[in-house]
Amino acid sequence: MLRFLFATTALAGGLILASCSSADEAMPETNAGAGIEAEVTSASGPAMVAAANPHAVEAGLDALRAGGDAIDAAIAVQSVLGLVEPQSSGLGGGAFLLYYDAQSGDLTVYDGRETAPATATPELFLDLNGQPLGFVESVLSGHSIGVPGAVAMLAMAHADHGALDWADGFDAATGLAEDGFEISPRLAGFIAGMAPRGPLDEWPASRDYFFTDDGTPLPAGHLLRNPAYAETTRALAADWRALYEGPLAAAIIDAVQDEPRPGGLTLTDLAAYQAVRRDALCRDYREWTVCGAPPPASGGITVNEILGLLEPYDMTATGPDTVEGWRRFIEASRLAYADRDAYVADADFVDVPVAGLLDADYINRRALGISRTTALPTSVPGIPDGVSEPGADATPDSPGTSHFVIVDSDGDVVSMTTTVESVFGSHRMAGGFFLNNQLTDFSRAPTDAEGRVVPNAPEGGKRPRSSMSPTIVFDRDGEFVLATGSPGGSSIIAYTAKTLVGMLDWGLTPQQAIELPNVVARGDIVRVEDGMDANILAGLAALGFTLDANRGENSGLHIVRRLEDGTLIGGADPRREGQARQP
Ligand code: GLU
């Protein structure tokens, strides 16, 4: 049972920072002395893994079958995903992980976001004339590579919660890397699409891994071996610090600093990396409490702002088959995205008005816009009390990433979103894995046209803003209800919010909620995925929305929900190749 939930009504606006580490620390001061003890949840309930690839799901299930904790399974899932779904996440990337410990009731956010090199300046992505660099010069460049954080983050979470040996988490990945795995259709599509995206020939390791000698991309079904990856997972199994110090770290830095377009990351940056435990950002929504990751992730704030904006409205009465239901979802998304774009960045470096954005009075003022019957003319950020208007953000966006959920038989939950940022990250490899291009999640321009500083500007040691939205929902008794999340760049927030409204308000199963067409309303254009009912599209257009309809959307939603009788049901996004399965 989540202990801090008993404090929710005592805090203004229902915003709660769920503290980490121990049950005692999890009690906010406002709740001190309330005399509420955590219930000890008994072991051996149902378990489940929902992830984007069957090999990864199987590895996670094997860890659970061996008596592993959800975090042991997460290590197995991540190390296999980095091999079989390298376009999305891996050992060279970063992640945010929400961990719910059923026995203590603690909820902890583990922040494994990449950091910029100590020497990075706000001009990181500007050319000599002060103009933003193009795609190849910024993304497919050493400049974009931050210190990979996923491995350090998993090691920290394992030290806190692991039941199996750390090394066991790499067995499945090592075996698959040595024996080979069949390239999936989705991976084959990205390999074929890789060459035209940039000068792949510059990077022999990636070229040799994915192409024949005559330059033909390897097809789906090809048995791919990756001995370098096996060597890496062996080294990490022996000591996770092998990624941050020693020969593997040196190989990473060689790849970063390789010509052309060398980056500034150094061995000192790698050695200095720290994963961070953070307070989860939780807010009440109707009869539930919705928890997500705080800055530098924008997911926890923005998903909760969308829900807060919808709360005054009876969403159950306006279901997914109504124009009105989608109108409200669109307007709430536009308002919350505008705030997110304006204010959210690494709160260790800039002031982020987290409490102001989620304050009940502020949200109620913002929600007045939704009471209209026609489309809001534009989507501009609000200004929470006591906050000055920041510079206009110029952070670009590109899809990659993977999300998975694990519930173990003790009822512990992992909700983890993990990324190398763009497809295959920077395209540069070391140790059999791809290096991220996460630093392009900073605003390319550090100031706006009026010279105002942009909160998400690059800076030495800073973490770029993320859209990742790993989410866990609890009921009013503090019992786990569901965990959800998705890849998809800034659309992650809309994809995740859609599933929450779908399940909590519209009564859908996880799978039905995943399969609803994605609707992404950021800025003045509303993207609507193929499959939306024509009458809804016509109705939205008649209200004055500018629609970009019948398009594909790159979500990869994975969900596990616990029903009242304790049964687990899951959902896997058919837009990807995943599964939700029990051991
Ligand atoms: N790098 C992005 C972020 O952290 C995610 C990219 C994606 O989902 O494709 O927000």
From TrEMBL:
Keywords: Acyltransferase, Glutathione biosynthesis, Hydrolase, Signal, Transferase, Zymogen. Residues 1-23 form the signal peptide. One of its GO terms (molecular function) is leukotriene C4 gamma-glutamyl transferase activity. InterPro entries: GGT_bact, GGT_lsub, GGT_peptidase, GGT_ssub_C, Ntn_hydrolases_N. Cleaved by autocatalysis into a large and a small subunit. Pathway: Sulfur metabolism; glutathione metabolism. L-glutamate binds at R113, D441, S466, S467, G489. It catalyses: an N-terminal (5-L-glutamyl)-[peptide] + an alpha-amino acid = 5-L-glutamyl amino acid + an N-terminal L-alpha-aminoacyl-[peptide]; glutathione + H2O = L-cysteinylglycine + L-glutamate; an S-substituted glutathione + H2O = an S-substituted L-cysteinylglycine + L-glutamate. Its EC number is 2.3.2.2, 3.4.19.13. Residues 448-470 are annotated as: Disordered. The active site is at T401. One of its GO terms (biological process) is glutathione catabolic process. This enzyme consists of two polypeptide chains, which are synthesized in precursor form from a single polypeptide. Belongs to the gamma-glutamyltransferase family. This is Glutathione hydrolase proenzyme. It comes from Maricaulis maris.
